[in-house]
Specification:
This protein is an alpha/beta fold. The chain is built from 10 helices and 20 strands. It has one domain. α1 packs antiparallel against α2, α2 packs antiparallel against α6 and α7 packs across α8.
Length: 405
């Protein structure tokens, strides 16, 4: 089985995609450079221990999964009138200078093999532009995938003193035989004193493989907060990163996942402190059941010039089955002594004392366990500002718990 697909891709295919979107020459060149880089670019880094790689992305049959010429999707966009929310092709025509300035400025198009593949082949996307001083709430981007593969690109730019809360969600539509592949690259730019909360809800079917990279850049006193919720897919590799580039910048990276059957979630959360007085809070909570598997890696990197830094990380996984498996690897990289930082990770089952307390007061054991699982997600759900994201995540969790009864 071939593990890579680039041998069957052609420059003509990439040029055809670019032409269909009426892209300028500089963007076509970016695509072609990404295509050429596939020959020498590695797959995303994953945690390894002697004799074991925790997530084997290289073994996927990308030649079968990737079909760049037959991409099909439905996209819904909702936004207030004073915010520019455009399909990528329209943004190319109307805001080329904005794209030229920011495309690839946060997430390197050649970060790894899968990022370069997505840069070369993306056919759909959304550009969200919030002008200086504008406050925008409940921007929503919903993508329904109706093809074998789909490559999506999202750019969010909040100018000085602007703010936006948004939801982007992915789901599958038309049924297909066999597996699918979804790839999404997101870049978030928060200008001086700007605020962005970007929430993502991934709920594709369980025959789909997912790769997502979300990266944010926060300027002076800027804030980039990510909410990363994963429910669907057969296997998901999701990386969320923020660079705190300006003094006083802040980030929260909040993650939630619920795996059942034989789902596999590989979740990364990383923050790069590169300026003074920066603050980061990384919180992830996950539940796994049946034969599901989760892998978590968290990194807090404090640079030499990041004086007066505060950086915290907590990851908790709840196991509902003896056949499930969870691994966690939190890391601190500290290069400045003027730092307050901590990290922790726990893996365990429903607390026996909590369960006893509830059952001793007349609550059925199954109902009590379900209530404890729902309550486990509350610290994450409380951070979500877009109601649709919070409510849909809660609804799916309840449905899966009810199916266990």
């Amino acid at each position: 089985m071939s593990t890579q697909v680039h041998a069957s891709l052609t420059e003509a295919q990439v040029r055809a995609i670019s032409e269909s979107l009426d892209e300028p020459e500089w963007l076509l060149e970016t695509r072609l450079e990404a295509l050429a880089a596939l020959d020498e670019t590695d797959f995303p880094a994953v945690i390894q221990t002697p004799g074991r790689k925790w997530t084997n992305l290289e073994t996927l049959d990308f030649e079968t999964l990737v079909d760049p010429e037959n991409a099909a999707e439905e996209k819904e966009l909702e936004a207030p009138d004073d915010v520019n929310v455009l399909p990528f092709a329209e943004a190319v025509a109307e805001h080329e200078e904005l794209l030229k300035e920011h495309f690839g400025s946060v997430a390197d198009p050649q970060t790894n093999y899968l990022t370069a593949l997505s840069t070369a082949l993306f056919t759909t996307g959304t550009v969200v532009h919030v002008p200086k001083g504008v406050d925008a709430e409940d921007v929503k981007v919903r993508t329904t995938m109706n093809s074998r593969s789909l490559f999506n690109y999202t750019l969010v730019v909040a100018e000085e003193s602007a703010s936006v809360t948004m939801l982007e969600r992915q789901q599958t539509g038309d049924e297909l035989e066999g597996n699918r592949y979804y790839s999404g690259i997101t870049e978030v730019v928060a200008g001086e004193n700007a605020y962005v909360q970007y929430g993502n809800l991934q709920d594709v079917d369980e025959e789909t493989y997912v790769y997502q990279l979300k990266e944010g850049h926060a300027d002076t006193y800027g804030t980039v907060n990510f909410i990363d919720c994963n429910l669907g897919s057969r296997l998901t590799k999701s990386s969320v990163e923020t660079t705190l580039a300006g003094d006083g910048a802040e980030t929260k990276i909040v993650g939630a996942f619920y795996g059942h059957n034989d789902q596999h979630f590989d979740i990364d959360a990383r923050v790069w402190h590169r300026a003074e007085h920066t603050t980061a809070d990384l919180v992830t909570r996950g539940v796994i059941d049946d034969e599901a598997r989760s892998v978590y890696e968290g990194v807090q990197d404090v640079g030499r010039d990041a004086w007066d830094t505060s950086s915290y990380q907590r990851e908790n996984t709840l196991m509902l089955s003896d056949e499930s498996e969870a691994d966690a690897s939190p890391k601190l990289i500290i290069n400045n002594h003027d730092t307050e930082a901590s990290h922790s990770a726990t893996v365990g089952q429903v607390d026996a004392e909590d369960l006893f307390y509830m059952t001793s007061r007349g609550v059925n054991e199954r109902l009590a366990k379900n209530m404890l699982v729902e309550g486990f997600f509350v610290p994450v759900l409380d951070e979500i500002e877009v109601d649709e994201l919070r409510e849909d995540f809660e609804e799916t969790v309840r449905a899966r718990l009810k199916a266990r009864e």
